[in-house]
């Protein structure tokens, strides 16, 4: 695998090649996942839950993100590295630029922001100053208390239209990648067709340009509530690398996610 860039991700969308992304938070897993063929690694603020044991992502700081971004970057050579901007770290374009700089200096190639058209100016400023941006729409976990829980978004027609509107606005502002989380598959398919940038789904069906999973879910390490859209790839593999090779292959072939992992 040659080095993955924004240009390569864009070319993959054009060619209809599916993008496989997974979270990682340290060098050991970053190296293994890259060897297994993942194109992009996300240092998700999900680390608040899976590493820190909190019940939301709201406590994660820019310093936490910078630390884990550096760990991942040190273990990775070819994968495209996306780091989450944590809760309240991008409330203004100026604040976003200062905090994104810390993540880029730690090794991120791109930063991810949760939210819609109100982030347009922030997206444009970051991009102008050299930081590519990934959007995140649908179930945006930093807004868990606004939603009243981690639930499917965009089920009603008016909600679905809103999500489409925000996707268009973010693309116009300059995002180069979009994550759609927990939305009905037909909506994710529409948005993936509508946008010219790659759309990465999680709980968004198979008709996006790629998939992302939290590594603990993909390896069946999550105890307690396991979301419907995840799959334990380790169960039928001998080791972690083989498990993630299977994930990459199933994403490429359009076999994961199946209907049982999706919402219609
Ligand atoms: O924090 C995270 O792991 C994420 C993915 C679930 C998309 O944002
Ligand atoms: Na996140």
UniProtKB/TrEMBL annotation:
Taxonomically, the superkingdom here is Bacteria
Free-text remark on how the cofactor is bound: Binds 1 Mg(2+) ion per subunit.
User: According to its UniProt record, in which pathway does this protein act?
Assistant: Cofactor biosynthesis; (R)-pantothenate biosynthesis; (R)-pantoate from 3-methyl-2-oxobutanoate: step 1/2
Q: Name one GO molecular function term.
A: 3-methyl-2-oxobutanoate hydroxymethyltransferase activity
Q: Where does 3-methyl-2-oxobutanoate bind?
A: 45-46, 84, 112
* GO CC annotation: cytoplasm
Stored Gene3D superfamilies: Phosphoenolpyruvate-binding domains (3.20.20.60)
Record's keyword terms, sorted: Cytoplasm, Magnesium, Metal-binding, Methyltransferase, Pantothenate biosynthesis, Transferase
Q: What is its EC number?
A: 2.1.2.11
Q: What is the annotated localization of this protein?
A: Cytoplasm
* Catalytic reaction annotation: (6R)-5,10-methylene-5,6,7,8-tetrahydrofolate + 3-methyl-2-oxobutanoate + H2O = 2-dehydropantoate + (6S)-5,6,7,8-tetrahydrofolate
Its transmembrane ranges are none
Which of this chain's residues are annotated to bind Mg(2+)? 45, 84, 114
- The active-site annotation reads 181 (proton acceptor)
Q: Which cofactors is this protein said to need?
A: Mg(2+)
Q: Name one GO biological process term.
A: pantothenate biosynthetic process
Matching InterPro entries? Pantoate_hydroxy_MeTrfase (IPR003700), Pyrv/PenolPyrv_kinase-like_dom (IPR015813), Pyrv_kinase-like_dom_sf (IPR040442)
What the record says about family reads: Belongs to the PanB family.
> Which function does this protein serve?
Catalyzes the reversible reaction in which hydroxymethyl group from 5,10-methylenetetrahydrofolate is transferred onto alpha-ketoisovalerate to form ketopantoate.
Q: How does it assemble?
A: Homodecamer; pentamer of dimers.
Q: What is this protein called?
A: 3-methyl-2-oxobutanoate hydroxymethyltransferase
């Amino acid at each position: 695998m040659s080095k993955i860039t924004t240009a390569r991700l864009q070319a993959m969308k054009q060619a209809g090649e599916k993008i496989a992304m997974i979270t990682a938070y340290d060098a050991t897993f970053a190296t293994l996942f890259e060897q297994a063929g993942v194109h992009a690694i996300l240092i998700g603020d999900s680390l608040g839950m899976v590493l820190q044991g909190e019940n939301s992502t709201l406590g994660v700081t820019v310093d936490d993100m910078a630390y884990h971004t550096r760990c991942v970057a040190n273990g990775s050579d070819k994968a495209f590295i996306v780091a989450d901007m944590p809760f309240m770290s991008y409330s203004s374009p100026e604040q976003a630029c200062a905090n994104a700089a810390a993540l880029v200096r730690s090794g991120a190639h791109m930063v991810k922001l949760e939210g819609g058209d109100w982030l347009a100016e922030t997206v444009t400023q970051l991009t102008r100053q050299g930081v590519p941006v990934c959007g995140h729409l649908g179930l945006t976990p930093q807004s868990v208390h606004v939603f009243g829980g981690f639930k499917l978004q965009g089920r009603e027609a008016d909600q679905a239209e809103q999500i489409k509107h925000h996707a268009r606005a973010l693309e116009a502002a300059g995002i180069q990648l979009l994550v759609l989380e927990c939305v009905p598959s037909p909506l994710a398919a529409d948005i993936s067709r509508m946008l010219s940038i790659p759309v990465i789904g999680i709980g968004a069906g198979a008709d996006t340009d790629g998939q992302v999973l939290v590594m603990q879910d993909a390896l069946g390490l999550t105890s307690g509530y396991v979301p419907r859209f995840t799959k334990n790839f380790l169960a039928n593999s001998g080791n972690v690398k083989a498990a993630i090779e299977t994930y990459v292959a199933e994403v490429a072939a359009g076999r994961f996610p199946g209907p049982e992992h999706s919402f219609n």
